[in-house]
Amino acid sequence: MDITSQVASQQAQSQLAALLSQGTYGYLLERIDGTIADTNDALTTMAGVSRADLLSGARTFTRHPDDEPRIRSIVASLTDGTRTTATFHARYQRPDASVWWAEISVSALHDPAGEVIGFAKLIRDITDELAEWRRLRGVEALWAELVHNSTSGYVVATPGGDVVDCNSALEGMLDRPRSELIGHPVLSLIADGDQAFARENLAKALAGAGPAQWRVRLARPAGDTFWVDLHPNPVHDSKGQVVNVGCVVQDARTEVAAEQRAALAEADLIHRSTHDSLTGVLHRAAVLDHVRKALNSAEPATLMFVDMDGFKSVNDHLGHPAGDTLLRVLAERIVAEVPEVAVWVASVAMNSP
After folding, report:
1. Which terminal residue of the chain, N or C, has fewer Cβ atoms less than 10 Å from its own Cβ?
2. Burial class of 339 by CB neighbour count within 10 A (0 to 12, 13 to 18, 19+)
């Protein structure tokens, strides 16, 4: 039986026509002796050889020498019946010496007696695809190197919240080896007081709606905690499903300390602007502001004025330092005895002339 007749009887014509009409698959019908019985335009474009030259035997496909042993082994297994189909990658050389990569799916064709009489091959040019794959692998390798050599911590967690990877910087931050972190809940790394906040933001990150950065405290085995900034980044598969969450962990202790110093400085500035520097109680302007608010309030209020007899003689006979000490002591005693809500009332006398 002629091989072209055999392939027509062994393969559904509609399916084959659909594949060949797409123009992305080359088709090759090869006899057992290696000569070519049929091909299509897509394959001749890939190979840079005309269909007439291929069918006449004037030209053939030139395989890369390094691939020859592997391909011969595959052909042998198809010929002796070890297997009936195979898919593999191989390199071919065009007449202009350029090399292209092919993905080849080959099926053995048999005569009625079961003898192999040739091979039907579907061939796809994967040169660009393979180059992109290698580029991405290179990017991934570079990213992995950057992550593991970074001074910032990095942790990868499953959607369920279990740690699957981390870098050495995070090990150093937590004072824990990687082996103690893998497989444990990522929330267990966070201080108890921040876990509810972290759980909420992790859920938002998985949904793609969380903040780009959030601040929590991490806990060390010794019991101490420290501030970090977390930058979550959901990682998706080809279907858009979240497969894990990568998170950059940046030590925020310096920033938190600076913010605390700024807050204290601001509080001190506000305190200085409203309190008497000698006694530490509210000065006249601040007290008057409280009085105005009390008068405008529906709540009942009492204003008390306290005078000190003979205070001038203390300054005259014992000196102003003694008078200052008397004012400070009196202010401390009034503050200690009067309810906090009324302390501002007592300060009027402290600043009286």
Report:
1. C
2. exposed
Q: What's the CA gap between 136 and 131, in Å, rounded? A: 9
| DSSP designation for 83 | -
The whole-angstrom separation of Cα 236 and Cα 91 is 32
Q: Which residues pair with 154 in a beta bridge?
A: 248
Name beta bridge partners: 219: 225
pTM over 0.70: no
User: Within a 13 Å sphere around the CA of 294, how many CA atoms are in the beta-carbon half?
Assistant: 14
List the strands of the sheet with 163-166, edge to edge: 163-166, 153-157, 242-251, 225-236, 214-219
Specify the 3-state DSSP secondary structure of 36.
strand
Residue 16 CA to residue 43 CA, distance in Å, equals 15
Contact 147, 154 (CB under 8 A): yes
From 55, 134, 54, 53, select the one nearest 89 (Cα to Cα): 134
Instruction: Render pLDDT for 226-240 as a digit per residue (tens, 0 to 9).
Output: 999 998 888 777 777
In contact, 67 and 90? CB cutoff 8 Å: yes
Q: How far is residue 104 from each of residues 20, 51, 107, 126, measured CA to CA in Å?
A: 14, 19, 10, 10
Residues 125 and 48 both lie in one domain: yes
Q: How far apart are CA 333 and CA 351, in angstroms?
A: 16
Within 10 Å of residue 308's Cβ, how many Cβ atoms?
14
CATH number, domain with residue 289: 3.30.70.270
What the block records as the tokens of 148 is 């593991």
In sequence order, what E strands does 252-314 have?
none
Q: What is the pLDDT of residue 161?
A: 87
Domain that holds residue 93: 3-131
Residue that has been written with the tokens 């030259």 in this structure: 53
If one compares 156 and 331, the residue with the highest pLDDT of the two is 156
In this structure, the answer to whether residues 159 and 246 fall within a common structural domain is yes
Strand partners, 236: 242
d(CA 312, CA 318): 10
Q: Are residues 126 and 160 in the same domain?
A: no
109 and 160 co-located in one domain: no
